[in-house]
Structures are given as C-alpha cells and as structure tokens.
Amino acid sequence: MLRLLGIDHDAFTAVEALNPRFVPGAPKLRITVDTESSPRAPEHVLLARLLAGFPRLAQHECRVGDSHRLAPGAGTRIQLIEGEPSANQAHLLEHLVIDLLTVFEPRVVRSGVTCAWTSPPERNDVFVECRDRNIGVAAAMLALIALDAALDDRPVTPLFEDLTRVWSVVSRAEPAPVHPRHVAHRAGLPRPRVEQALALLARTQLVREEPMALNLSGESHWRAR
Asked: Mean pLDDT over residues 84-95, rounded?
C-alpha cells in the first residue's frame, strides 16, 4: 500500500544538481512516501489508467541521462526504469503532482525529481517546484488518492477532470462564496458530480464550506481557502 510519511516545503538546493531545469533557490515540495515493492498493477498499466483522468501527462517530458533500463511508458515521454516498480510509482506521483499544480498554480513552468532510498527500498523522496505550501500539500494528497485508485483499478475519470472545472469556478468567484447549483451551471456538470468534487477538494482544505448566519435557501455555500 502507499504510505505518506511527510511533506516539507523548502528550497532543497542540494537536489538542484539532479535536474538542470530547476530554478536555483526556488521553493520546492518534498514528499516522502513508501510505495509498493509488490505492486497491484504493472507500471505501464498504471500509467495507462492515469492517462484516462490526466490526459496532460502525455505532454510531460523527462530529462534524464541515457540508460538501457529506461523506457517511455504508455506512449508518453515519461521514463520508467525496468525492474524498479517502487521507484516508478514514486516517479508517476511526481508527474501527477506537477500536473495538478498546473491547475492550482497556473502559468508556472515547474520541474521535479524523484530520489529512491537505498534502505528501505520502497521509500522515495519526490521533489517538485511549488510556490505555495498549502496548494502543494493539496496537490500531493490528490495525487496520492489518484495513484492509489489507479493501482486498485478504480476509475480516475471523471472525478479528477471535474476537480479542474469546479476549482476554476470556485477560485474565480472570490471573494464571494458560491453554492453547488451555481458551480454546476458554470462548470457544465451535473450537481452530484460537483458535490463529489467539492467534497474531495474540502479534504485537502483547498475549499471550505462557508457557514451562513441566515440561509433561507438551504443551499451550502463554498469558497476557496
């Protein structure tokens, strides 16, 4: 099973030599996670499942050194290491976090790197450039939820596609709160799917339900954190 051990936010300049695309001194998220040494799904199958909910992964590109053990996975330019399922899962987590951050921190080009531990072998540190710690933590949590679902062959679509559209409506509505009926209309989604997306965003504290002193409509009201 996947096990999140910690999330930190700092410059972590020591890892910048591992990826020349890192902006020197830029703040980074470090996600320490134990992945599966005996995976529930092979990495190429896992990536194919993730692509259904995160089609932008097809546009991601890995900048790594040459190795006969490296190969692009599932028709993407994401490099996977032959015989290293634990490290590959962590590397896919890195790409999921980057993909989600393009939703929550748009118009920012970011880089990352995954570092596998020698002992225990299932432990990995994932580093991703990220300006806002709270948004980074939310992206990491959502990425772990998505990765676990794909490992379990549970659908990652349309929920994670819906998150993008729901977040876009809620975040642009600031400072006023919005209710699910309004979000459903603006996002072009059925209300039950909006409510499911809002509940997941609330778990990461990206959105919160707004208490109302007087609420004659009975509608819940939501705003970005």
From this structure: 94
Residues 128-174 have pLDDT tens digits of 999 999 999 999 999 999 999 999 999 999 999 999 999 999 998 87
Residues 207 and 223 sit within 8 Å (Cβ to Cβ) = yes
Instruction: Give the relative orientation of helices 133-151 and 43-53 as an angle to the nearest 10 degrees.
Output: 120
3-state class (DSSP) for residue 105 = coil
**Residue in 99, 103, 101, 124 with CA at minimum distance from that of residue 114:** 124
Mean pLDDT score of the chain, rounded to an integer?
A: 89
Residue 167 — φ and ψ, nearest 5°? -60, -40
Whole-Å CA distances, 172 to 121, 187, 197: 43, 12, 16
Contact 222, 198 (CB under 8 A): yes
